[in-house]
Amino acid sequence: MAEADHFATIDRVGELFRGVVARGLRPGTVAGATDAEIDDMAAAQESPAVPVAAREVLRLVGKDKGPFAGGGGYFGVDGLRERAKQKALEFFDEATAPPAGFRDPEDMLVLLYHGGYLTCVVDGADLTAADPPVWLLEEDGTLRRQWAAVTDWFAGLCAEVGQLADELADARAHDRPDPGWAGYFERR
Predict the structure, then answer these.
(1) pTM of the predicted model, to two decimals?
(2) Under CATH, to which class is 3-174 assigned?
(3) Which of 23, 43, 110, 167 has the fewest Cβ atoms nearer than 10 Å?
């Protein structure tokens, strides 16, 4: 991996995060994981590496995700452990014809496990890339490359947080009560 790719990937993740902070996310409502915690999560999943982009996302929101990744998903270093990987492997076993582009399910890294029916994963063969594709793996074995890169996947999570900020601003503009998750955002 080129050093320039490494740093460009870190910059892109930071830029996405700063974008949601600019839209009102209170940074203190999320907490990042340490490299040791990230490595421990990967070891629990029996994944030999964590891509630069995924590591940087976890450094920002991997310990306490706040409003990221919705309410029903397992995310971060405490939620993405053996069980998440086990479920992803069970989902993969249901695939009748996995795409040829997905080469290493045993070493895949689970980024999100949601509601018992889908996971977002990085192919184990791509773990040393700075910003590899993210695949959507469903409980029926459906597997598709959903995002071209981890940063694209994170951009989607950031967009969801931005939508919450917009909903909150609209509620406040119309004198409606704050939703339960309003504490994640600055009062504007």
Answers:
(1) 0.95
(2) alpha beta
(3) 43
Residues counted in the chain: 188
Residue 1: is its pLDDT beyond 60?
no
pLDDT score of 3: 78
pLDDT for 71? 65
Q: How far is CA 122 from the centre of its chain?
A: 11
**SS3 label, residue 111:** strand
Domain chopping of the chain, boundaries: 3-174
User: What average pLDDT does this structure show over 61-86?
Assistant: 89
Torsional class of 96: left (φ above 0), alpha (ψ -120 to 50), beta (otherwise): alpha
131 contacts 149 by C-beta, under 8 angstroms: yes
Tokens of 4: 């320039």
Residue with tokens 């490359």: 145
Residues paired with residue 138 on neighbouring β-strands, in sequence order = 118
Label the pairing between strands 143-147 and 134-138. Answer: antiparallel
Q: Which residues 6+ apart lie within 8 Å of 86 measured at CB?
A: none
% of the chain surpassing 90 pLDDT: 85
